[in-house]
Amino acid sequence: MTTFIWVCLILVLLSIAGLLYRVFRGPSIPDRLVALDSIGVMLISAIALLSVIFDTGFFMEVILLIAIMSFIGTVSFSKFIEKGEIIERDRTS
């Protein structure tokens, strides 16, 4: 069973390497954004597999932190791509 988990971890790390290629050589900005979001998901998966390998629940806080930061980053980048700014400063009201 441990061998299967190590193989899964290696496959996840190879997926991260492939996604890094897409981040740097993506044909468009939205493709790069999707790759960054996917890297966050793969990183969460890798840390969860390490938590299973080491038989500890210590990494759960790290997984939660990465998930929150990945979500905030994806929303911020998406808003920046759509509107050109992240924080709108409308002082008319």
Rg is 17 Å
β-strand amount:
under 5%
Sheet with the most strands? Answer: none
Share of helix, binned: over 70%
| Element-by-element helix/strand order | HHH
- The 3D shape can be described as flat
Alpha carbon gap, first and last residue: 61 Å
Chain-averaged pLDDT = 89
Number of strands: 0
Number of alpha- plus pi-helical segments = 3
What class, by secondary structure content? mainly alpha
Which spans of ≥5 residues are poorly predicted at pLDDT below 50? none
What does this structure look like?
This protein has helices at residues 2-25, 29-53, 60-83. With 93 residues, it is mainly alpha-helical. The longest helix has 25 residues, at 29-53. The chain is flat and about 60 Å long. It starts with a helix and ends in a 10-residue tail after the last helix.
Salient structural properties:
single chain, 93 residues, mainly alpha, 3 helices, 78% helix, 0% strand, flat
Short description:
It contains 3 helices and no strands. It has 93 residues and is an all-alpha fold.
Task: Indicate the topology.
Elements: H1 2-25, H2 29-53, H3 60-83
Helix pairs in contact: 1-2, 2-3
